[in-house]
Specification:
The complex is a heterodimer of chains A (342) and B (609). Chain A has helices spanning 2-22, 38-71, 89-117, 227-239, 250-259, 298-306, 326-336, and strands at residues 126-134, 137-142, 147-150, 152-156, 160-167, 172-176, 180-185, 191-195, 201-207, 220-225, 289-290, 294-295. Chain A is of the alpha+beta class and 342 residues long. In chain A, the strands form three sheets. A five-stranded mixed β-sheet of chain A has the order 3-2-1-5-8. A five-stranded mixed β-sheet of chain A has the order 4-10-9-6-7. Chain A has a two-stranded antiparallel ribbon with strand order 11-12. The longest helix of chain A is centred in the N-terminal third of the chain and has 34 residues, at 38-71. In chain A, 41% of the residues are buried. Classes of the chains: A alpha+beta (342), B mainly alpha (609). Bound molecules: protoporphyrin IX containing FE and copper (II) ion (CU).
């Protein structure tokens, strides 16, 4: 009998674990269980529908299972031979037909939402954003606004965002769980997906397709702003084309123009045309993290410039340790800190 | 009747040359068990790296190698071979045959699998293991983005795959042609039925992986551009080809598991299987539908709502025959006398676990929901519930059940139960929290995660569970050793079972059946027992038995391909020619020399007993 006691002890343990995991622990800006927009909400309600149906089936199975295991275990001294039942047509029809009905109940909203989510919205209906995934960073281009940004995706709230996604090198997948599911970014092809954020906030984005050594580190931020704030951001981004640099940062700018500008633009209006081999750094100083996930401070920035491999294995930025001296790196850091959007 | 000398071989030479299905079964078990331990070690190392956030034990590329080799090893080199071990050990006995249809091919299949798997694993020492995931999606697995490891993947799996394919054909022919008199298809034991359907799936699915691997090999080694977007290639083609193989592959794994569960539950409930014809029908239907659903692995690739909807509904349909099986198992136990032996404990543990795996499977078949689940830890949880909680549990059930028939000794029951509980509890601790980790935003195939994103607790519990499963596995190994050294000698029929394999001695004699038995119904042995008999009615007079000769050629042929594999990888064409040449010469020798085999006399004592 002791084995049954054990499994009974296991069940409440699992239930508690479930509560702990879903309740207090989840990150509301990351979790798909706490949707922040209509797409994620619709997806969660389908998940719940399928889960309820499945739990219903599971309960039926478990009730029979537990009953059978207790009732029909062989008792000491029991002899005789149980009746060799061949089957039972009535029962067998029941457990064929009921699942079919349950599946039909699930299939109808499934197909309808599948088509809704595949809809492609025009410029009038939605803000267009072109996403290009790279090993291991993200490029966001706003064709109608003629700006582009690296790593941080700014969007207005309460408005559909129509993404056209592709990749430069290998496959990646763009996933912002709190706003909705993912879609693959395939080199040589373009995929479409739409999402919407209802409330302002900084949502966490992830790469969801194995893309090389730093796949785990290919995070990005989705910053949803009230529409007026968003417009301000757009104007600030456009202003980076004509931004001047304070005198204190000019030494750093010179280093930047010699060593970095071959890959990185700092002008958001250029990103569209400049070679897309590295993220556009317009507004860099406002970013909360470096390279998608590293705490943004001067030491980490200097370390990144010296040896990016040590922080993000396999990334394609060259190391500048040995090529630039301490002074030049400090100047660079100073200059980078002026790349704000005011 | 020309009688040839009975070739007595011993030791290593015997194992290298054997064509006896029982010995080949043991070879498969040893090799598959060895790879299972390697794959398990790789899993444990990954779980250690993921125990806490931001750890730096296996970072980036090294984690990806562990990940890829774990998946590839477990699927191709551990799960498949252990299934083949049971197929070989049991199917000929269950159908009253003296061996498989093509004993020589059987040995060839084993050696190809083994040397292919060895080739793949040598990558660890020769420039790094493959690192593009077991699915080897392009362009990541192409020559621009990954190193030599993927060459080992392509060539190792190609060689091992040919072995599996040959094995599948062999079992199809065996089951069609070599059934004992009276053993019609609708009297076949469920395990044999499931092996039959699995073999058919192997026959049709493996050519797809063969083709994909050839195309990838051309791209990587000979400058092809099938998957090179810049040159007009298409990367999605790889995914279609891979999953046209890959989805049936998971049914290739799970159907024999279903077969094992049917046998074990029926025996230990002392009842015939409930709804036999429905079970057969469901098995065939699952096998058929298995070919119709591969796109559910590709819902996020961007194939459009029509494709996604159609494949979604096809996938949901599989739940129906699967549900039929679950209920039939429950009702097999209903009204029975259930004995909780170690074997049955694994089978009984299988039921709820596999039901959970099936439930999450239905949830994954909903494309908009899958956009959230896909490539997240939810998927990792789902497929481990089906593969480990389903197939591996069933394999343990089958091993405990048939161990006496394979080795003549009964595994220690107490140790068997202790191992079960460590593994069962560890399994749920490891994989249950992963459902939530996935929904809480943890992508799969990541080597680390950040603190303060709500992912710490789940990952920690998961790693603790992995340790518990490791203990369970070690207890099983210990049990094997204890049993081998001082286990209890098994009788012919230690479980009071129902099918033909239990009518002969444990382990079975070289020729299996001294006289081919006459089958008079489903559960042939049970039918005789109910008629008050202790043994089967023979269908032929006692006489000399013809046996195939052992041969070293299968081993050498496989070695030739193994050598050629290295040659291809390094563009060393002389080595390719030597390797392929060896194989071709062996094929030639095999064709021109007639193998007359030899004859044995059944042991008179045993026949009388
Ligand atoms: C025995 C205990 C096992 C543990 C602790 C374990 C653990 C893991 C872990 C940590 C991963 C990586 C997940 C990720 O990062 O995406 C993984 C992946 C995988 N496992 Fe297991 N696993 C176990 C057994 C098995 C078995 C028995 C099989 C198959 C027969 C299997 C098949 C796979 C596959 C196919 C993958 C995916 C590999 C890939 O993404 O390329 N696992 N497992
Ligand atoms: Cu990526």
């Amino acid at each position: 009998m002791s084995r049954w006691n054990l499994s009974w002890r296991l069940l409440p343990l699992l239930a508690v674990m479930m509560l702990v995991l879903t309740g207090c622990a989840q990150d509301p800006y990351l979790s798909a269980l706490d949707p922040k927009g209509p797409v994620a909400s619709a997806q969660l309600s389908l998940i719940m529908l399928s889960l309820y149906i499945m739990i219903g089936v599971f309960v039926v199975v478990m009730v029979i299972y537990v009953y059978v295991l207790f009732r029909f275990r062989k008792r000491p001294g029991q002899t005789g031979i149980p009746e060799q039942v061949e089957g039972n047509h009535k029962l067998e029809i029941i457990w064929t037909v009921i699942p079919l009905i349950l599946l039909a109940v699930l299939a109808v909203p499934t197909v309808s939402l599948t088509f809704d989510l595949a809809e492609k919205h025009s410029t009038e209906e939605a803000l267009q954003v072109k996403v290009t995934a790279h090993q291991f960073w993200w490029e966001f281009e706003y064709p109608d606004l003629e700006i582009s940004a690296g790593q941080d995706l700014y969007i207005p709230t309460g408005q559909k965002i129509q993404f056209q996604v592709t990749a430069k090198d290998v496959m990646h997948a763009i996933w912002i769980p709190a706003l909705g599911g993912k879609i693959d970014t395939n080199p040589g092809m373009t995929n479409n997906m739409w999402l919407q954020a209802d409330k302002p906030g900084t949502y966490k984005g992830k790469c969801a397709e194995l893309c090389g050594p730093s796949h785990a580190l290919m995070d990005f931020k989705v910053i949803a702003l009230e529409p007026a704030e968003f417009d301000k951001w757009v104007n600030n981004m456009k202003a980076t084309a004509t931004k001047t640099v304070p005198a204190s940062a000019q030494a750093g700018q010179e280093v930047f123009n010699q060593s970095c500008i071959g890959c990185h633009a700092v002008d958001a209006t250029k990103g569209v045309k400049v070679p897309d081999i590295a993220p556009n750094l317009a507004g860099f100083a406002d970013r909360t993290v470096l390279a998608g996930f590293i705490e943004h401070n001067n030491e980490n920035l200097a370390q990144w410039i010296k040896n990016p491999q040590s922080l993000k294995p396999g990334n394609l930025m060259p190391a500048f340790e040995g090529k630039l001296d301490e002074q030049q790196i400090n100047d660079l850091v100073e200059y980078m800190n002026t790349l704000t959007l005011e | 009747m020309a009688t040839h000398a009975h070739p007595k071989r011993t030791g290593l030479w015997d194992w290298l040359t054997t064509v006896d299905h029982k010995k080949i079964g043991i070879l498969y078990l040893i090799a598959g068990g060895f790879f299972f331990l390697i794959g398990g070690l790789e899993a444990l190392l990954m779980r250690i790296q993921l125990m806490y956030p931001n750890q730096e034990i296996f970072v980036g590329g090294s984690f990806n190698q562990l990940l890829t080799m774990h998946g590839t090893t477990m699927i191709f080199l551990a799960a498949m071979p252990i299934i083949f071990a049971l197929m070989n050990a049991i199917v000929p006995l269950q159908i009253g045959a003296r061996d498989v249809a093509f004993p020589f091919l059987n040995s060839l299949g084993f050696w190809l699998f083994f040397l292919g798997g060895l080739l793949l694993n040598l990558s660890w020492f020769l420039g790094g293991a493959p690192d593009a995931g077991w699915t080897a999606y392009l362009p990541l697995s192409g020559k621009n983005y990954s190193g030599m490891g993927v060459d080992f993947y392509v060539l190792g799996l190609q060689i091992a795959g040919i072995g599996t394919w040959i094995g599948g054909i062999n079992f199809l022919v065996t089951i069609i042609n070599m059934r004992a008199p009276g053993l019609t298809f609708m009297r076949l034991p469920m395990f044999t039925w499931s092996v039959f359907v699995t073999s058919a799936l192997i026959l049709f699915a493996f050519p797809a992986i063969t083709v994909s691997l050839v195309l990838l090999m051309f791209d990587r080694l000979f400058g092809g551009a099938f998957f090179e977007p810049a040159l007009g290639g298409n990367i999605v083609i790889w995914q279609h080809l891979f999953w046209v193989f890959g989805h049936p592959e998971v049914y290739i794994l799970i159907l024999p598991a279903f077969g094992v569960i049917s046998e074990v539950i029926a025996t230990f409930s002392k009842k015939r299987i409930f709804g036999y014809s429905a079970m057969v029908f469901a098995t065939v239907l699952i096998g058929f539908l298995g070919f119709m659903v591969w796109v559910h692995h590709m819902f996020t690739v961007g194939l459009g709502p029509v494709a996604n909807s159609l494949f979604s509904i096809a996938t949901m349909l599989i739940a129906v025959p699967t549900g039929i099986k679950i209920f039939n198992w429950l009702f097999t136990m209903w009204g029975g006398q259930i004995r909780f032996t170690a074997a049955n404990l694994w089978a009984v543990g299988f039921l709820p676990t596999f039901v959970i795996g099936g439930m999450t499977g239905v949830m994954l078949s909903v494309p908009p929901a899958d956009y959230q689940f896909h490539d997240s830890y939810f998927v990792v949880a789902h497929f481990h519930y089906t593969i480990v909680g389903g197939m591996v549990f069933a394999l343990f059930a089958g091993l405990h059940y048939w161990w006496p028939k394979m080795f003549g000794k009964i595994l220690n029951e107490t140790l068997g139960k202790i191992g079960f509980w460590f593994f069962f509890i560890g399994f749920h601790l490891t994989f249950f929290p992963q459902h939530f980790l996935g929904l809480m935003g943890m992508p799969r195939r990541v080597f680390t995660f950040l603190p303060n994103q709500g992912l710490e607790l789940g990952n920690f519990i998961s790693t603790i569970g992995a340790f518990s499963m490791t203990i369970g596995t070690l207890v099983f190994l210990y049990n094997v050793i204890v049993t081998a050294t001082r286990g209890e000698k098994a009788s012919n029929d230690p479980w009071d079972a129902r099918t033909l394999e239990w009518t002969i001695s444990s382990p079975a004699p070289e020729y299996n059946f001294a006289q081919t038995p006459l089958v008079r119904g489903l559960d042939a042995f049970w039918v005789e027992k109910m008629a008050g008999k202790k043994k089967m009615t023979p269908a032929e007079p006692l006489g000399e038995i013809h046996m195939p000769s052992p041969s070293i050629l299968p081993f050498i042929m496989s070695l030739g391909l193994f050598i050629a594999g290295f040659g291809f990888m390094h563009h060393a064409y002389l080595i390719v020619i030597i390797g392929l040449g060896t194989t071709v010469v062996c094929m030639f020798l095999r064709s021109i020399y007639d193998d007359p085999g030899y004859h044995v006399h059944p042991d008179e004592e045993e026949v009388k007993a």
